Amino acid sequence: MSDFLLPRLRALDPYVPGEQPQDKQYVKLNTNESPFPPSPHVLDALSREAIARLNLYPDPLSAVLRQTIAAEYGLMEANVFVGNGSDEVLGFAFMAYADETRGATISDVSYGFYRVYAQLYRVSPIIIPLNEDFTLPVEKFLSQGQLVALANPNAPTSIALPLSEVERIVAGNPDSVVLIDEAYVDFGGETCVPLLGKYPNLLIVRTYSKSRSLAGGRLGYALASPAIIDDLNRMKNSFHPYNINRLTMLAGIEAMRDRRYFVSCVAAICAQREQSAAALKTLGFTVLPSATNFLFASPPGMDGKTYYEKLKARGVLVRYLSQPTLTRYVRITVGSVGQMDALLTATRDILKEEKA
Amino acid sequence: MSDFLLPRLRALDPYVPGEQPQDKQYVKLNTNESPFPPSPHVLDALSREAIARLNLYPDPLSAVLRQTIAAEYGLMEANVFVGNGSDEVLGFAFMAYADETRGATISDVSYGFYRVYAQLYRVSPIIIPLNEDFTLPVEKFLSQGQLVALANPNAPTSIALPLSEVERIVAGNPDSVVLIDEAYVDFGGETCVPLLGKYPNLLIVRTYSKSRSLAGGRLGYALASPAIIDDLNRMKNSFHPYNINRLTMLAGIEAMRDRRYFVSCVAAICAQREQSAAALKTLGFTVLPSATNFLFASPPGMDGKTYYEKLKARGVLVRYLSQPTLTRYVRITVGSVGQMDALLTATRDILKEEKA
Fold this sequence. Notes:
Two copies of one chain form a homodimer.
Chain A: E1 27-28, H1 40-45, H2 48-52, H3 63-72, E2 80-83, H4 86-97, E3 104-107, H5 113-120, E4 126-128, E5 147-151, H6 163-171, E6 178-181, E7 202-207, E8 220-224, H7 226-237, H8 246-257, H9 259-282, E9 286-287, E10 294-298, H10 304-313, E11 316-317, E12 330-333, H11 337-355
Helix pairs in contact in A: 3-8, 4-5, 4-7
C-alpha cells in the first residue's frame, strides 16, 4: 500500500479468489470451472484470421453478442448488458445503485464479493443471516428501500430458492433494484427470466464461466429492463467502453448459439453431481441438495478445514470457507469422472486413516 | 436511465469512443489502431489447444505476463500492473487516488476520459489550459497536492513533452501521484521509465492497443513503485480479480517478447507518418509535430468539422473533436500506405471542389 492511497480505501478487504497453486498439479475442484472445453464452434470461430484482426478495436456496443444472448431468452438487445466476467457486471450494478446514501441488503452467506463492492462504494450493508438449514428467510428481504443482492442458487450452499419466493422479493421491493445472481442457475435452479416483463426493478446477472465452459474467456451478462441496462452501459462507458475483447465476443456468440453442446455438458455435470453426492453420503457426509455444479458437503467426524487440508496433501483441491457458520463444510466442484474418482479415493483414504 | 440510478450519477457524461459505423466499409483512420496485425508469434500462441483450455480461469496474478513486461523494461514483476485495456488501468488509478477529498489536475486538451473518471469518482478537477501553441505550461502543474494526470505524448495534439519537463512535474509533486499516460510514447516520445527508480510517486500507464497491434485484445499496463502497484491490485481485487482473460494474457506475452516485429511496425508507421505529414503540408495543411501514430492537422480554408464531413462522405473516417480550441483540426490515424493514399486522394478532391 502506498502513502498516496485514499485513506477511505486503506481498510478495503479485497476478495480472495480460490487458490491457483503453481507448486504441483492438483485435481482442481475449488473454483467451479466446467470440466469440459468450450463448444467446438468456439474453437472454430477463434480462427487465425480472427486473431490476425486483433489490431482493430472490438465493437464497443457488443451488438451481435447482445443480440445472440437476447435471442436465446426471447428478449431484445436492449435487455442485455455484457461485462468482463459477471464480477464486472456486479461491480457496475453496485456502482450504479448503492452508496452511503442508498445502501444494499445481502445475506450473510452468499458470494463473498457483494461485501467487497459494498466496502468499495462506501455502503454499510444490511446483512441478513440465513436460516439454520441454510435456506433464505424471504420475509426479511422485503421492503428494503435499497439494492437487494442475492445469488440463486446460492453459493457456497448450492441451495436454490423457488421462483415464487424470488418473485415475492422482487415484488416486495418495488422502489429498488433486486439483483438476482444466477451464475449457477443452469444446473437446476429456476430462472427468474420469466419475471422480467413484469418487474422493471429486476436485474439478473449471469456468467459464461460455469455452464458455458468459458471461465478463461471472462464473460458475464445482465438481463433487465432497458432502463436498467442503460444505467449499466452508462457505468461501463464511464469506466472502459471497450470492455469485451474481440475473441471473447466471438466465443460468447458461438457458445450461446450451440445449445446442443451446452445442454449435453450441463446434463453430464448434473448426472455426475448426483452420483458423487450419493457416494459421499454413503461415506457418512452431509451433502446439501445442490442445484449447482458444486456440492456443499460436511465430512463425518472432522471439520471442513481438516478435510480440506488432508485432501490438499493428497493432491485434491476443494474450497474451504472460514465463515463461522460454514466451518463444518467444504465446497467441492463437480469435475470430470476422473477428478471425482480421485476425490472419492482420497476421501476413503482420509476416513480410513481417521479410524486407524 | 432508470428511476433507480443514484441521483449523483444521473449527470454523468460518459466517454464517446470514435465512431464504428456499420453502414459501409470506411477507410478507418479515426481510432488510432495499428494497420498491422499482431506479431506472428501471437497468432501461433493462440492455438486450438490454448482455446480449448478456456474452461479454466486465467491466473488472477497474471504472473508470467507481468514478468515478461517487467523484463522488457528492466523492472521487477512487482513494478507491473495489468488491466483490461489502459482505460481500466486509468480507472483504477483514479479510483485509488482521487475523490471529493483529494482531487485531480489535468489539462484542458488531453485524453477525454480523465474528465469522465473525475465525474464518476466525485472529483472537481483543476483543468489547466494548454498554451496557445498546444504545448503544456509545465510550471502550472507543480505543487498540486493531488493526483496529476497527463498524456505524453499528448492526445489529440500529438505533441511530446521532453523527459526533463516530465521530471520537473514528477519532482514538483512529491506528495501526490503523477500519472503519465504513455499510450503513444513508442512512436517518438521520451519515456519516463528511467525516472521510476527515483520517484515513488510516478505512475506510468501504457497500452498494447497502438504499438503492439492489440486494440482488439484489450490490454494495458502500469509501471510504478511496488507500493503503487499494490494499490492498483487492491482496486482490481475489489472489482474483478480475473481481469485479464487467458488468450489476451498469452497474446500480451508474445507481443512483448517479439521485439523485432514491434520495432519494424513502429518504424514503418513513423516513416509513413512523416511522408503523410509532408504531403498534407504541401496541400496547405498545418500539421503539428507528431510523436504519435496520428497527425493533428488543420486543413486550409475550412474548419475541421467540414473537412471531417467531406472525408466521411468520401468513405474516409477521421476524428473530429468539438472542443472550442480544436475546431480547426482533425485527428488522423497513420494507417497503411493504401489507407493514407485514400486519405490524400479524397483530400485533393475536397480541396479542388472548394476552389471550383
